[in-house]
Design a protein that fits this description.
Transmembrane segments: 29-50, 57-78, 84-104
Protein name: Transporter
GO cellular component, one term: plasma membrane
Distance between the termini: 19 Å
Structural class: mainly alpha
Radius of gyration: 15 Å
InterPro entries: EmrE-like (IPR037185), Small_drug/metabolite_transptr (IPR000390), Small_multidrug_res (IPR045324)
Pfam families: Multi_Drug_Res
Strand content: under 5%
Oligomer: single chain
Number of domains: 1
Number of helices: 4
Order of helices and strands: HHHH
Length: 105
Amino acid sequence: MTWLFLGIAVVFEIAFALGANATNGFTRLWPSVFTLAAAAGGIYTLSLALRHLDVGVGYTLWTGLGGVGTVVLGSLVYKEKLTLPRLLSFASIIGGAVLLKFTAA
């Protein structure tokens, strides 16, 4: 269940970041409600995952994978450019998160 909770928290993190862009500085009601709900859901499910994960591992995976997912979906939803340096950076984040998981006690 720990990894399921972390996966759900990552989805909420991505939804939060994409929603925050749509709020126009929290001046639009429904995107703002969605964004706040996603933030609350992400923090809650992250806290459930952290019952069994070290905070360094859980938080790093949450923010790293959330960041990668946000950039990938941001390129689709908001037409942001994906360049080779960005793709290499994402690969580094994912590789670092995987290595962190395997080196955690």
